[in-house]
Amino acid sequence: MFLALCCAAAMTMPTDLRLAPLFQDSMVLQRETRAPVWGEAEPGARVRIRGSWSESVVETVADGRGAWLARIETPKAGGPFTLEVNAGTKVVLQDVLVGEVWLCSGQSNMEWKLRPGELGGIMNASEEIAKASFPRIRHFDVGNRPALRPERSCNGRWSVCSPETAGEFSAVAYFFARELNVELDVPIGMVNATWSGTRIEAWLDDATARRFPDLAQDVLHLDALRAASKPVALDAQVASVLFNGMVEPLAPFALRGFLWYQGESNRDNFATYSRLQPAMVDNLRARFEGPEIQPFLFVQIAPFAYEGDVGQTGAIRDVQRRCLAQPHTGMAVTMDIGDPADIHPANKQEVGRRLALWALCKTYGREKLVFSGPLYREHTLEGAQVRVRFDSIGEGLIEGGDHITGFEIAGDDRKFVRAQARIDGDSVIVWAQAVPKPVAVRYGFGAAMQPILFNKSWLPAAAFRTDDWPIP
């Protein structure tokens, strides 16, 4: 059980002027957009906001509760700038950069830090930290806190990337940011709202959670706690509590997009996950402002020998693949870089790079990049064989060893057996002597399976299944 006390976080600002949590020294604002700036002041106070990149002053008035919000036009990437907010008392934020801002969330594989130790430790950690001199990469780490209701504040601060600070960064977020910073030559801000071992339900907002009958018990439990009106200990796995405490305080900050690495803790309800993730994405896009198109890039979970697995891992990988049907989404595949003995594979460098390939190609216009490994498109039955066709094959399919592994086929009896496979142009032919009349194919379905089908850019094929048969 993850338990935390539900309490309010204090802001260290003048008592009559408070800015929302992300507005601090060394922050990054999303470039070339109307970026919301908000906070609290005395009710009725006139609030003036100006960025040093412009002579324009934006004004608004605090409402009866003291809340205020205004939007400022941000320039092309650059900085450092200052951001001045004046409501009688003046706050001037220093070292403000303007570039690309991404929110990253999920469970431990996204939370995993560069430095060794609890919730951290990556491949070549000492070397990576020593060379992490990227002052235009900034990282905001949101403090872990569940909440009964949507909060307006959270704990966290911006850190400038250096060998002294990078060890505490989300490794996936850092390597993603490093790729973008080098390729785009613009500042990158990464907002890290993660909690180890948590389920997707906790990251839904309350309204979304209420749409799912499976979450009715959580909803009723939280309603009862709210009605009691007294301090309580909250389980961080309950629907909506992490959105309330760790995501809502950040909205409606202007973002380019979202990164998501989660799913390990939802293997038991993979069928519902197929609706939970798209619903979460819709809500995030509605809550955060920024460019009209906000990509949502996620990671298909890696190989690991889960105890008692009878197909749940393969099933949720396939659900994740199917979530690519939602517009402006992308998926990094990790079938070749997992560790069957470690649920936290050390090669976070490649995870970040593969997410960045999706962003560079689909968001930033690098259209010639091969951004994904092979993705199942369709299959046809050809007698005793099955032909599987793929999208995203780049310059062609290749096998990473002496022969292709990871395929299974079944007939009408629904009993899957290990299959042989060979590449035939843009297809893979799959067969097994024990199944003379195959009707379904699976690939990478075993929990710890590490199959070796790639495209010529050495990006691995995503796990998939063609059947929808129940998992035991």
In short:
By secondary structure, the protein is of the alpha+beta class. The protein is built from nine helices and 26 strands.
Describe this structure in words.
- With 472 residues, the chain is an alpha+beta fold.
- The protein has three domains: 8-97, Sandwich (Immunoglobulin-like), CATH 2.60.40; 101-363, Rossmann fold; 375-465, no CATH class.
- The protein has nine helices and 26 strands.
- Strands 3, 5, 6, 8, 9, 10, 11, 12, 14, 15 and 16 form an eleven-stranded mixed beta sheet that branches.
- A hairpin with a 2-residue loop joins strand 22 and strand 23.
- The two termini are 27 Å apart.
Features:
472 residues, alpha+beta, Immunoglobulin-like, 3 domains, 4-stranded antiparallel beta sheet, 9 helices, 26 strands, 30% strand, globular
CATH hierarchy class name of the largest domain:
Alpha Beta
Q: Quaternary arrangement of the chains shown?
A: single chain
Query: What is the domain tally?
Result: 3
Shape summary: globular
Overall average pLDDT: 95
Strand content: 25-35%
Structural class: alpha+beta
Count of discrete alpha- or pi-helical segments spanning 4 or more residues = 9
What is the CATH fold-level name of the largest domain? Rossmann fold
In the predicted model, the low-confidence regions spanning at least 5 consecutive residues are: 1-14
Largest sheet data: 11 strands, mixed
Give the helix proportion (percent range): 10-25%
